[in-house]
Specification:
Length: 269
Amino acid sequence: MPERPTRRLALGLSYRGQAYRGWQSQPGGRTVQDALEQALAAFAGDETGPLPTVCAGRTDAGVHALNQVVHLDTSLVREPVSWVRGTNRHLPADIALQWCRPVGDAFHARSSAHGRRYRFVLLESPVRPSLEQGLVGWVFRPLDGPAMRQAAALLIGEHDFSAFRAADCQAATPVKTLRTIAIERRGAYWRFDFDASAFLYHMVRNIMGCLVAVGSGRRAPGWLAEVLASRSREAAAPTFPAAGLYFLGPYYDAAWALPAHAPALDWLP
């Protein structure tokens, strides 16, 4: 029998990263990609072979995602709503497909993205989090918002971000364009929103470590310019813990008509 033609699907995915070793499949399993591809295979049954996925941004262990985008090629013909509901039946409770859209072969979840967004939610409190454990970062010292905004402004633009790059980062170049860092406070919670062309491994967490050092008064705002210019990881603050970091998702040309919003976005402060 002739092979059935394939078509490309884009999927939007949300997950809590606490139980997983990150997105990317690796020996020993327990990754988000493993869980998703196993669920897709269970949904497809014997009607297709393996359904490997390509994601927009590889999240690290403990990092959450609200609108991760992946694509896959399949010969299985089902309505988009069936892909969502059918796959979710086989996913653990902390991972869920949010949407599915057919796209052309020219679409690529990673290379078609114009940019990516992350959010870090931080609790400022003398007492550690309990209900929000794993879902927010924590500082017990008061933070200075204007000082952190002044420091963050020094990072905006196209730069070599080697000082904020993990040693095992596999990116081809450390040069990225950081478009915005927006810092807001609501009650006891701080929200840091990052928008960039792409991010290096641990880049947001390393920047967060520096911003908290400035906000707590341990460093002056201008220190960020020195760290950036050094291009040395040793010049920056220690990597901030992953709890509280959310991959909000990528964004694409409007012609693809892909959702840039998932309901999970609405609960964050």
